[in-house]
Amino acid sequence: MGLIQLLFRDPLTFFLLAVPLLYSIILHELAHGWVAYKMGDSTAKWLGRLSLNPVKHIDPIGSLMLLMFGFGWAKPVPININNFHNLRKGLILVSSAGIAANIILAFLSFLAIRLFSPLPFESLDIMLSYMAKINIMLASFNIIPIPPLDGSKILMGFTTGRFQYTLQSLEPYGMFIIIGLLYLRALDPLIVFFQWIILGTIQLFLP
């Protein structure tokens, strides 16, 4: 179900879901830009993308897809890999940054629930729960090594030659492939597997 149906059916739940979802996606993209800046690429900084302002990150089509179908995206942070101090290291770290940001947000959400539960407001408890689940889902989805997802770029950082070229050549068609696989639910087992690994890792560090 898309968020637009939820807005009319249950406005409070819509708000509690939409806010964590919006900023989880923004922080994912912001992490890419910040690590790219540290690796020598100032493109995102010059274009004002190192910001928490939602207007800087909203993609019209991605937002409409999210509202209508519950699946969407933000504008990718522009990155010029030719500016990296170390190309291979930069590609791996920058591509991993968004996933790491989502995992950290999930961990902090679970930690807050664990340390302060029961929270003074039930709605805050619900929002933190949504924040944790959303970020685990985002991290699990983005690890998938299909272009243009982050997992494919991490894989490119560890490979060279023909395989790297194959991944690059798939990128223009990647979103169509991903949407088709999601429609067929072919990615479900892989996403569940990554969720299991991420959740298990987070639980190791929770008090």
* Rough outline: globular
Low-confidence stretches: none
In terms of DSSP E residues, the strand content is under 5%
- Count of DSSP H/I helices: 10
Q: What structural class do the secondary elements suggest?
A: mainly alpha
Largest sheet: none
| Percentage of residues assigned to helices | over 70%
The ordered H/E elements are: HHHHHHHHHH
Distance between the ends:
35 Å
> What's the Cα radius of gyration?
18 Å
Per DSSP E runs of 2 or more residues, the count of β-strands stands at 0
Mean pLDDT: 90
How many structural domains?
1
Structural features, described:
This protein has 10 helices and no strands. By secondary structure, the protein is mostly helical. Helices cover 71% and strands 0% of the residues. The chain has helices at 3-9, 11-38, 43-46, 60-69, 87-116, 122-143, 150-158, 161-170, 174-183, 188-205. The model has no long low-confidence stretch (mean pLDDT 90). It has one domain. 31% of the residues are buried.
Short description:
The protein is mainly α and 207 residues long.
Keyphrases for this structure?
207 residues; mainly alpha
What's the structural blueprint in terms of helices and strands?
Elements (H helix, E strand, L loop, with lengths): L2 H7 L1 H28 L4 H4 L13 H10 L17 H30 L5 H22 L6 H9 L2 H10 L3 H10 L4 H18 L2
Helix pairs in contact: 1-2, 2-5, 2-6, 5-6, 5-7, 6-10
